[in-house]
């Protein structure tokens, strides 16, 4: 009970009520008489829970009690998994995290990641659908092919947030062409909601199967959405040039990403054949209400985290830089995690390091009538685990920024 009280308080500390209760409480605890102090503290705390629950019930609309979540993470030993743990550790509505593994059952998280010793003491469980269903939300931070299987077995009784690409493409045949593996059942693909939160919030709110976007598509689509939706560009003429740090490839070693291959090097890969191409095209054509075929070229750079997507978009008519700036201001002025740079300045990946921000710089070259959009994210946060938690917050009616209010790690 006490823990819940303080979790509640942490959530509402910055509200008027929360501040008032804190003053009351702190005043009370300075009372001389210890006995009175304890009684006073609990009385105030109980008032707080009652008030907090009333507020939460209003927020939830369905009159449930204040939710303290039991979370399951499958694939917890991967980079997405450990990032989920880092971010959920301080989430005010998360009470318990259970970690699941297909190969490390019985081991502790600290055996995989010593840096969480004394912070995360959960032991890794074997992946068991019945047990998974006893949690309020299940994050699948697993390779392609796993959630296509597992989601159908658990989605009846819990909410699934899938970080893999299995449920993003509505067309199974397109998935099979680009991923080279069997697609999930069409019924799952129909039900899954694509969780580009800023552009799909309403659908995210009411789904029980959330398909979290890929890292490149997140940076690209947030960068292109305002111009595409305003009909200012034809996505078929857009060139997308994206660079990623090596954690985008996951924790397991590969001949492409190990140190000797990446150090002092800069690589292009999967030219005209990256699996994110159809995902980007799917969303752009939804916005354009017309087919979209883009050129998307990914690159690997010797850095741990970060994605920079630079998009070159011919404008359909003579738009000034001011027109475009206004378009982006209108689109993102009230979005907590999308920040726009002032004219003439452009974001770099360090400026979003470890956070759920997507920072965007944009300019129009009136000489060529072409817009250049620069969009940066941390591939493991806004590109994966952070956006997954942002979607969880929307799905459960929590403050959308809960657990994600972090200042970038700089330098
Ligand atoms: N890294 C990134 O920047 C991004 C990654 N993604 C996607 O998120 C997912 C996780 O990525 P990431 O954490 O980087 O990958 P990792 O390779 O680091 O981790 C994946 C984890 O999945 C588990 N796993 C492997 N095989 C199976 C299996 N057959 N059944 C169940 N679990 C299995 C492993 O844990 P164990 O052996 O303990 O089961 C492994 O630690 C992937 O689909 C990835 O494409 C999406 C956006 C960005
Ligand atoms: C650097 C690097 O290898 N990045 C990965 C993208 C990770 C990702 O987002 O994968 P999913 O779409 O499967 O979730 C890649 O290019 O495949």
Automatic annotation (TrEMBL):
<dbReference type="Pfam" id="PF01118">
    <property type="entry name" value="Semialdhyde_dh"/>
</dbReference>
<dbReference type="InterPro" id="IPR000534">
    <property type="entry name" value="Semialdehyde_DH_NAD-bd"/>
</dbReference>
<comment type="similarity">
    <text>Belongs to the NAGSA dehydrogenase family. Type 1 subfamily.</text>
</comment>
<keyword id="KW-0521">NADP</keyword>
<keyword id="KW-0055">Arginine biosynthesis</keyword>
<dbReference type="InterPro" id="IPR050085">
    <property type="entry name" value="AGPR"/>
</dbReference>
<comment type="function">
    <text>Catalyzes the NADPH-dependent reduction of N-acetyl-5-glutamyl phosphate to yield N-acetyl-L-glutamate 5-semialdehyde.</text>
</comment>
<dbReference type="GO" id="GO:0051287">
    <property type="term" value="F:NAD binding"/>
</dbReference>
<dbReference type="InterPro" id="IPR000706">
    <property type="entry name" value="AGPR_type-1"/>
</dbReference>
<dbReference type="InterPro" id="IPR036291">
    <property type="entry name" value="NAD(P)-bd_dom_sf"/>
</dbReference>
<keyword id="KW-0028">Amino-acid biosynthesis</keyword>
<feature type="domain" description="Semialdehyde dehydrogenase NAD-binding">
    <location>
        <begin position="70"/>
        <end position="207"/>
    </location>
</feature>
<feature type="active site">
    <location>
        <position position="215"/>
    </location>
</feature>
<comment type="pathway">
    <text>Amino-acid biosynthesis; L-arginine biosynthesis; N(2)-acetyl-L-ornithine from L-glutamate: step 3/4.</text>
</comment>
<keyword id="KW-0963">Cytoplasm</keyword>
<dbReference type="GO" id="GO:0006526">
    <property type="term" value="P:L-arginine biosynthetic process"/>
</dbReference>
<keyword id="KW-0560">Oxidoreductase</keyword>
<dbReference type="GO" id="GO:0070401">
    <property type="term" value="F:NADP+ binding"/>
</dbReference>
<protein>
    <recommendedName>
        <fullName>N-acetyl-gamma-glutamyl-phosphate reductase</fullName>
        <ecNumber>1.2.1.38</ecNumber>
    </recommendedName>
</protein>
<dbReference type="InterPro" id="IPR023013">
    <property type="entry name" value="AGPR_AS"/>
</dbReference>
<dbReference type="GO" id="GO:0003942">
    <property type="term" value="F:N-acetyl-gamma-glutamyl-phosphate reductase activity"/>
</dbReference>
<dbReference type="GO" id="GO:0005737">
    <property type="term" value="C:cytoplasm"/>
</dbReference>
<dbReference type="InterPro" id="IPR058924">
    <property type="entry name" value="AGPR_dimerisation_dom"/>
</dbReference>
<dbReference type="Pfam" id="PF22698">
    <property type="entry name" value="Semialdhyde_dhC_1"/>
</dbReference>
């Amino acid at each position: 009970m006490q823990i819940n009280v303080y979790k509640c308080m942490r959530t509402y500390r910055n509200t008027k009520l929360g501040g008032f209760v804190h003053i009351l409480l702190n005043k009370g605890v300075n009372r001389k008489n210890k006995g009175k102090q304890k009684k006073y503290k609990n009385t105030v705390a109980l008032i707080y829970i009652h008030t907090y629950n009333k507020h939460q019930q209003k927020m939830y609309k369905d009159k449930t009690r204040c939710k303290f979540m039991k979370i399951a993470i499958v694939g917890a030993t991967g980079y997405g998994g450990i990032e989920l743990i880092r971010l959920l550790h301080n989430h005010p509505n998360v009470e318990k995290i259970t970690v699941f593994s297909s190969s490390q059952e019985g081991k502790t998280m600290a055996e995989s990641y010593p840096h969480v010793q004394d912070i995360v003491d959960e032991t890794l469980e074997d992946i068991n659908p019945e047990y998974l269903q006893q949690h309020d939300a299940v994050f699948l931070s697993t390779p392609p092919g796993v959630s296509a299987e597992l989601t159908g077995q658990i989605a009846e009784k819990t909410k699934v947030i899938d970080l893999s690409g299995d449920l993003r493409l509505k067309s199974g045949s397109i998935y099979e062409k680009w991923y080279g593996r069997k697609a999930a059942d069409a019924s799952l693909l129909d039900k899954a909601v694509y969780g580009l939160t800023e552009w799909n919030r309403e659908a995210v709110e009411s789904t029980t199967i959330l398909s979290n976007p890929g890292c490149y598509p997140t940076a690209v689509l947030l960068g292109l959405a305002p111009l595409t939706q305003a009909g200012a560009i034809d996505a078929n003429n857009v060139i997308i040039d994206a660079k990623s740090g090596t954690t985008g490839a996951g924790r397991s070693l590969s001949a492409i990403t190990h140190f000797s291959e990446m150090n002092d090097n800069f690589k292009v890969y999967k030219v005209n054949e990256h699996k994110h191409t159809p995902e980007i095209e799917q969303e752009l054509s939804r916005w354009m209400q017309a087919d979209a075929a883009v050129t998307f070229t990914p690159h690997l750079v010797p850095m741990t985290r970060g994605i920079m997507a630079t998009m070159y978009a011919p404008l359909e008519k003579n738009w000034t830089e001011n027109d475009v700036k206004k378009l982006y201001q209108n689109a993102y002025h009230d979005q907590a995690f999308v920040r726009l740079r002032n004219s003439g300045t452009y974001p770099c990946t360090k400026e979003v390091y470890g956070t759920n921000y997507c920072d965007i710089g944009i300019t129009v070259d009136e000489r060529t009538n072409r817009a250049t959009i620069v969009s940066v994210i941390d591939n493991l946060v806004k590109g994966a685990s952070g956006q997954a938690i942002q979607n969880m917050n929307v799905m459960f009616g929590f403050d959308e920024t809960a657990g994600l209010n972090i200042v970038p790690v700089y330098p």
